[in-house]
From TrEMBL:
SUPFAM superfamilies: P-loop containing nucleoside triphosphate hydrolases. InterPro entries: AAA+_ATPase, ABC_transporter-like_ATP-bd, ABC_transporter-like_CS, ABC_Transporter_VariousFunc, P-loop_NTPase. GO terms for molecular function: ATP binding; ATP hydrolysis activity. Keywords: ATP-binding, Nucleotide-binding, Transport. PROSITE patterns: ABC_TRANSPORTER_1, ABC_TRANSPORTER_2. Transmembrane segments: none annotated. This is ABC-2 type transport system ATP-binding protein.
């Protein structure tokens, strides 16, 4: 079942074409990684699904709801994990979770919360500590927990693995794979070819606002994917 869909999604900033007729579909249980250099249009794509900016033409749909036409319904089905997850630093992880759950109109039980934290391998001893002390990996996990507690059908993640040490990145990759396997659709923006291969069920290569290729990560080795990516980056814009 398709959860996220872009139909000829296009965004102009002034006369600059940031996104050019993007067509993607992400089903429940899938992870699509958008891979591309700075300025390729990855964040613009996420922002259009989130309704942070309006498309110039085309549609972004979440669980069948057009984001521009019915932003509340689309947003209700979406979770978002920003590159830097905003938390209240003086509140504990538990208090942050309770606050954001309330904001989303949810009142999850402690058992449900604990099951989600357990699944995300969030250290139980840390949940009562102020969120200001959390590492980036812990903040990402709390961001995921907020999305899962909300019951999001799709979660968008902007550069979730950048700035993580290798152990924390490996751990988060495993957590993201398990989250998708649980039936959530994930759309991830990244610069990191090798991590994209680890986490994705499909990789979309973007350049200058266009999706120039879609790759099955299982069909290519890491070096082959890198070589394909570099070939696309070297091609002159059409
Ligand atoms: N609010 C804005 N106003 C004008 N131009 C913008 C705006 N947001 C993005 N752009 C431009 O649109 C293009 C796509 O940017 P976008 O942030 O989507 O790329 P990206 O692939 O996410 O890059 P990065 O990896 O650096 O985050 C870039 O040329 C960028 O300068």
């Amino acid at each position: 079942m398709t959860v996220l869909e872009a139909r000829d999604l296009t965004k102009l900033y002034g006369d600059h074409l940031a996104l050019d007729r993007l067509n993607i579909a992400v089903a429940a249980g899938e992870t699509l990684c958008l891979l591309g250099a700075n300025g390729a249009g990855k964040t613009t794509t996420l922002n259009l699904f989130l309704g942070f900016t309006a498309p110039t033409s085309g549609q972004a749909l979440v669980s069948g709801h057009d984001v521009a036409a019915d932003p509340a319904a689309a947003r209700a089905a979406l979770g978002y994990v920003a590159e830097v997850v905003s938390l209240y630093p003086s509140l504990s992880g538990a208090e942050n979770l309770a606050f954001f759950a309330q904001l989303a109109g949810q009142a999850p039980r402690a058992t449900q919360r604990d099951a989600i934290l357990d699944r995300l391998r969030f250290p139980a001893s840390a949940i009562a500590r102020p969120a200001g002390d959390y590492s980036k990996g812990m903040r990402q996990k709390l961001g995921l927990a907020i999305a899962l507690m909300k019951g999001a059908k799709a979660i968008l993640l902007d550069e979730p693995l950048s700035g993580l040490d290798p152990a924390a990145a490996n751990d988060l990759v495993a957590v993201l794979r398990e989250t998708a396997a649980g039936g959530t659709a994930l759309l991830v923006s990244t610069h990191d070819i090798f991590r994209a291969k680890d986490v994705a069920t499909r990789i979309g290569i973007m350049r200058h606002g266009r999706l120039v290729d879609t790759v099955d990560p299982g069909a290519l080795s890491g070096p082959e994917l890198e070589s394909l990516y570099l070939t696309h980056m070297a091609e002159r814009a059409a």
